[in-house]
């Protein structure tokens, strides 16, 4: 049985990995956008 603290930490880990994936997708999009738009 998980304690409330362990559940909370698991939720934080899931949120952190989700935000990391989101940042990665945004960075990919920005680099793609730069290649499409001439300086």
From TrEMBL:
Domain of life of the native organism: Eukaryota
Protein's name in the database: Uncharacterized protein
Organism, as annotated: Rhizophora mucronata (Asiatic mangrove)
């Amino acid at each position: 049985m998980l304690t409330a603290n362990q559940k909370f930490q698991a939720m934080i880990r899931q949120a952190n990995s989700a935000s990391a994936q989101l940042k990665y997708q945004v960075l990919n999009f920005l680099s793609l956008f730069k290649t499409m738009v001439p300086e």
